[in-house]
Amino acid sequence: MNKIYNPDKAEWGTVLKRPTQTVADIEQTVEAIFKEVQSNGDATLKKYTEKFDGVIIENLVVSENEIEEASALVSQQLKDAIQLAKNNIEVFHKAQKTSKVSVETANGVQCWQEKRPIQKVGLYIPGGTAPLFSTILMLAVPATIAGCEELVLCSPPNKEGKINPAILYTANLCGVKKIFKVGGIQAIASMTFGTESIPEVYKIFGPGNQFVTVAKQIATKYGISIDMPAGPSELLVLADDSANAAFVASDLLSQAEHGIDSQVILVSTSKDMIDAVEKEVEKQLPELPRKDIAEKAIANSKLIYVADDQTANDLINAYGPEHYIVCVENEDFFVNNIKNAGSVFIGNYTPESAGDYASGTNHTLPTNGYAKQYSGVNLDSFMKSMTFQKINETGIKEIGAAIEIMAEAEGLYAHKNAVTLRLNSLK
Ligand SMILES: NC(=O)c1ccc[n+]([C@@H]2O[C@H](COP(=O)([O-])OP(=O)(O)OC[C@H]3O[C@@H](n4cnc5c(N)ncnc54)[C@H](O)[C@@H]3O)[C@@H](O)[C@H]2O)c1
Ligand SMILES: N[C@H](CO)Cc1c[nH]c[nH+]1
Ligand SMILES: [Zn+2]
């Protein structure tokens, strides 16, 4: 990391710039692949799987046999850990259920709002550099609680043309039946348009690299909705002298190891803490199996010194991190005043990894500053709110005249007439 920044407000944007490519950078590639998938279906999926994943795939569909084989390859210890995580994710997402909202807005005018599941959902499970089977829990568990009818899962195959056993095991555990060996832009295109093998869906969920993220954004042009742009992982840690520098460094490295385009930021009012964390990063980094990736991500990352708590909080809100660890004595001030963050982790014993796997919160979160306008995946992501109303004779008499006057003022006489006919029938 090296350089310690102490930016003026005017420099925040430049210093905190993310290393990821934008929609404009990748759009052309995405559009070209989308068009090809739309006209040539499976053949295009196979072509780009060969090009980007380096493997020739005969059949995109994962068979029952492959799922059974996978289960035998996953250790009991890992199965138990997955079950523990699943239980906690279920508890937290079931608790997000809300009850029907119903109110009589005027005499005889009953209005209510109820939620209904999105019928067909697509789940993208990243698998380029690491098989993120934990993401299945984050998507399939709330989709099932919401009551979604059709779950379609896509994940890239490895060089042997297979999906990692832990992904297949977890998908099966979560009741996902339609699993396909395809990743990247081509996977998002397949769920957008549908192909001979892969059904189209109404909404696509899941994180991925910058190609996947831009592809999801482009999919919205074709009438598909998405959870949010959930791209390369990010973490911002706010630490003062009450923090444990080794813990902070381990957290920064945990997100740096995701990909070379990940970004991790340390913000502190203590230069001693910044120095201590930097030393710890240097100590811990060489021990990591993914040190080459983490080292490149660390090069995108920043150490930021700020003079006071208010400046720190303003800068963090301007950045809008995906993950935000608060490890300071003045914890309440920061927790109460955070406006833009995907998920917040508080105190020395709350590593970001807890949210990635097993505490119960969802790890599919907005990156690239999108925490300013998007929520992370939650139960409501898999549902739509529908409104209902029932008006009786008293009710139409109560509000009918107002509707007639408003419709007439908008010049919409058919609207007015729909009320007038009813009012006349009651005279
Ligand atoms: N924001 C979140 O909630 C969240 C959660 C988990 C993971 N992530 C992020 O997900 C990402 C996973 O990335 P990954 O690469 O390991 O897996 P991935 O599955 O997202 O992407 C792999 C696919 O990318 C495509 N691809 C690779 N190079 C390409 C190129 N040059 N042009 C076009 N397509 C190309 C290939 O088709 C490949 O199958 C990481 O960046 C990680 O930080 C984010
Ligand atoms: N940190 C990622 C979200 O940015 C989620 C994840 C999955 N596995 C490990 N981490
Ligand atoms: Zn992670």
UniProtKB/TrEMBL annotation:
Binding site for Zn(2+): Q255, H258, D356, H415
Taxonomy of the source species: Bacteria, Pseudomonadati, Bacteroidota, Flavobacteriia, Flavobacteriales
Entry's EC annotation: 1.1.1.23
Family: Belongs to the histidinol dehydrogenase family.
Reaction catalysed by this enzyme: L-histidinol + 2 NAD(+) + H2O = L-histidine + 2 NADH + 3 H(+)
Organism field: Zobellia barbeyronii
Keyword annotations: Amino-acid biosynthesis, Histidine biosynthesis, Metal-binding, NAD, Oxidoreductase, Zinc
Gene Ontology MF annotations: histidinol dehydrogenase activity
NCBIfam families xref list: hisD (TIGR00069)
Cytoplasm in keyword set: no
Top EC class for this record: oxidoreductase
Pfam families noted in UniProt: Histidinol_dh
Active-site residues (renumbered): E322 (proton acceptor), H323 (proton acceptor)
Protein name (database record): Histidinol dehydrogenase
Required cofactor names: Zn(2+)
Cofactor binding summary note: Binds 1 zinc ion per subunit.
Function: Catalyzes the sequential NAD-dependent oxidations of L-histidinol to L-histidinaldehyde and then to L-histidine.
Pathway assigned in UniProt: Amino-acid biosynthesis; L-histidine biosynthesis; L-histidine from 5-phospho-alpha-D-ribose 1-diphosphate: step 9/9
Annotated binding of substrate, by residue: S233, Q255, H258, H323, D356, E410, H415
Binding site for NAD(+): Y124, Q186, N209
Domain of life: Bacteria
